[in-house]
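Practice problem: predict the structure.
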Amino acid sequence: QVQLVESGGGSVQAGGSLRLSCLASLYIYNNYCMSWFRQAPGKEREGVAAIEADGRTRYKESVKGRFTISKDNAKNTLYLQMNSLKPEDTSIYYCAARPCFTFTWSNEYDYHYWGQGSQVTVSS
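Answer:
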């Protein structure tokens, strides 16, 4: 069954903003830690941002100061606010969930659940 449902992708010009949403099942939302990954054509999938059980956030260095990961507990929804977008941010973005006890956050093999992917295209 589908347990992570993404929305909010689209196309913007460089410097613009988008907000991605990931609606999670109650079980996943309350028992896992969640992250955003992305994969551009011809490139490996990479971790973009994570939010841990204590609320600590983690970011890929290249998106620090531009992207913000957050959660709305009332809506069991994960967000990725993306500002000052650059063409190199163009990717398919995935939300994902992993057990919270992992030593790192950006190893894709730690993740048990994945969203369907949302295309983000940034033009120059």
